[in-house]
Amino acid sequence: MLANSYTYNISGKVYTYHAFHSFKIIDLINDDCLKDYTVDLDFDIKLVGINSLGGSFIDFKITAISLPEEINDEISYNIKPFLTEYQNITNHLMLKLNTEGNISSIENLEELKQKWIVLRDKLIKLSGQQEIDEMRIRGDIEFGEESNYEERIKKSLFFKTLFPKIQNQFLENDALLEAHEVTSSVLPDLEIPVKVYFDLKDEMINLSTELVQDDFENIIGKQKASNPELEINSFFINCNSSYFLDASNYIHKAETIKIETLNGEDETIDHIIISRVL
User: Fold this and answer.
1) Residues 20-39: what's their mean pLDDT?
2) How far apart are the C-alpha atoms of 55 and 7, rounded to whole Å?
3) Which domain holds residue 115?
4) Residues sharing a CB contact under 8 Å with residue 153, sequence separation 6 or more, in sequence order
5) Is the pLDDT score of 147 beyond 50?
6) What is the DSSP letter of 80?
7) E strand or H helix at 157, and its extent?
8) pLDDT of residue 107
9) The CATH number of the domain where 62 resides is what?
């Protein structure tokens, strides 16, 4: 089939979506949920233009975001105005997609960094307060001179779900779609080599992810060499995404579930659902 999903071909038309991202950490030994929170998000997507190579420029704008109650309850009154300004740094992204539908760059990345510099100057004047200093350190990591924010966006589970590599290609069932690395949820410093396969059944597109075992074992060997205390005796990852399209091949609903299990003890579950608001 020719997968035309995410072919936003009407310039200026706004597509509105609602998304939620649920994240859990489970202690399998004691059958205990250590962390469970959900982020709700409303956002708009608008096609700005198409370049000469067939890729597109997308205006992505967050219109509302709701953080988990337990996170809101932990935020002190003094930090809340700065938290809102911090979130506003990335509420508007100009994204360049390649011809296959993946994000290739953030076109307004310098604008984001300038927003951070303005906020950072405000935070420096209040240095010495723990939450203020923690926000400044986190912001420097995300938007500073040596930040890799663009790469993190490309690899993030949310944007991988929103912009999959299934546009303008002839794809058959069980076809290898791509081989890449995903950031681990159970071990955030670990990049996991995976392969993604395409399947179409009953008008539903499915993308399944498999661990590249040999490459993964080499990575684990290097990790253990640099960190002898790291214990990785077994690791399991299962990630599947499904897409329902409307008659015009625009997304109606997308869903991703990613499960990681470390040493048969710790498990993380990411669950993302993105639905179009008509």
Assistant:
1) 93
2) 10
3) 2-276
4) 93, 103, 106, 159
5) yes
6) H
7) helix 157-162
8) 94
9) 2.30.230
